[in-house]
Write a structure and sequence with these properties.
This protein has 193 residues and is mainly alpha-helical. 38% of the residues lie in helices and 9% in strands. The termini are far apart.
């Protein structure tokens, strides 16, 4: 035994002797229940967590309620599922169409496929019209030919009254009207001759 361990053992022995001198119960450190309260608390004792009523009867409910036969009463949930609450609020506030339109925007690749989604971009939805820009005029032309199929897929997924029309645009041409080297006049005339 080292000197530190001997010092600790002596300290514990002094504590035990002092507890015995005061007629206190010396805890057995090997017992798991050594520090549990062995005497019940007085019922009306407010300092010890009682109800303070002083009537001698503890009126606090403890545990699950039981029926007259002693079995637990069934637990009845009064909470409504979160999905049902959200759906009711969405309908009552008139957000159904807006949420469906947002779904179309966020799931565009799922609706048209990854190849088309790679070359197209949903710009906005306004008045049941879906505005789409394409990388090239060729993709814009192909998308215009597929317009009916795309509208059918959207109607199947989110409903018929969400998107009624597709507005498909090609890439924007560069503007010659702005920039640090802009010269007043008609612009480049024979550049595209």
């Amino acid at each position: 035994m080292t000197e530190d361990e001997d010092f600790i053992a002596q300290a514990f022995e002094r504590v035990r002797r002092e507890a015995q001198r005061r007629n206190g119960r010396v805890p057995d450190l090997n017992n798991r229940d050594a520090f549990r309260r062995t005497t019940p608390r007085p019922i009306g004792d407010r300092a010890n967590g009682g109800n303070g009523g002083g009537g001698g009867v503890d009126k606090r409910r403890r545990g699950r309620p039981t029926g007259p036969d002693g079995r637990y009463k069934p637990y009845v949930r009064s909470a409504e599922p979160l999905g049902a609450i959200l759906n009711r609020e969405i309908r009552s506030r008139g957000w159904s169409r807006d949420i469906a339109a947002g779904w179309v925007t966020s799931h565009w690749a799922e609706l048209v496929g990854p190849k088309i989604a790679q070359h197209t971009k949903v710009e906005m939805i306004k008045d049941k019209k879906l505005f789409i820009t394409c990388d090239s005029t060729a993709w814009a032309t192909n998308l215009r030919m597929m317009q009916k199929q795309i509208l059918q897929v959207i109607a199947e997924k989110v409903g018929p009254d969400v998107i009624a029309e597709l507005r498909i645009f090609g890439p924007q041409a560069p503007s010659w009207r702005k920039g640090p080297l802009h010269v007043k006049g008609r612009g480049p005339r024979d550049t595209y001759g």
